[in-house]
Description:
Elements: E1 11-14, E2 17-20, E3 25-31, H1 46-59, E4 63-67, H2 80-97, E5 103-106, H3 110-118, E6 123-126, H4 135-143, E7 147-150, H5 168-186, E8 191-194, H6 203-211, E9 224-225, H7 231-234, H8 245-257, E10 262-265, H9 268-277, H10 280-283
Parallel strand pairs: 3-4, 3-10, 4-5, 5-6, 6-7, 7-8, 9-10
Antiparallel strand pairs: 1-2
Amino acid sequence: xxxxxxxxxxxxxxxxxxxxxxxxKIMGILNVTPDSFHSDSRQSTVGALLDSAQKxxxxxxxxxxxxxxxxxxxxxxxxxxxxxxxxxxxxTELHRKFPSLLISIDTFRSKVAxxxxxxxxxxxxxxxGGRFDSAILDVAAKxxxxxxxxxxxxxxxxxxxxxxxxxxVTDVSRELSEKIAILKRKGVKDIIIDPGFGFxxxxxxxxxxxxxxxxxxxxxxxxxxxxxxxGMIYNKLYTNQxxxxxxxxxxxxxxxLKGANILRVHDVIEAKEIATLLSDSVLxx
Length: 285
């Protein structure tokens, strides 16, 4: 404790780079899937992926998150072979063209994660928190890459029926703490927590977590928030995901003010504007 505030880890090591998280960072989402919920994030060819990545980098993305398995509610099963054939060529080419780019592999499979790291990825983003393939925790420990630990329950087919909490904030916190203890025992040094907006939470629960996001600072770990164009925004506004950018920006701003270190987004330009306007240099002028 210092000045009555919890000391928080504000650096992570990605490869040979030490990344400071004391100012808001932006993670751009690129999906090599045919069915991710936001169509503009889908990339059907490596060329299109590289073009989109270049735009995100130019807009100020600090990380790019690559996924080959849609985890939206009701998403179809994807085999390990198909997932690898989607993400590994994409990561290989991204790393070749942008060698300094920090690439996150969005997967819950240990073999996919390890092959992605071998080909240029430097973070693991696991929506299952190791529930689907516990060996992914060992991969994070072996390679000493940052591990994004997201809270979730069930899978894409069942999670919306698993929203029974006594108190969603404290229950999610407790379930995350159990996984954090396992990761630390395995020797994972850089853990980033994600409360899992939209994953086994209803709309009211999502906003309760948002309103109490600062509670998760008690872990002393970086926090990543992924609300970009999700149902918690467009359902509240009686619109659709294509028209949810303004709402996303508002919710992301609240998240940043309540302690988020990284925003995972489809729209990098708008998120980077949040980071710029909330930076110390602007707030202290």
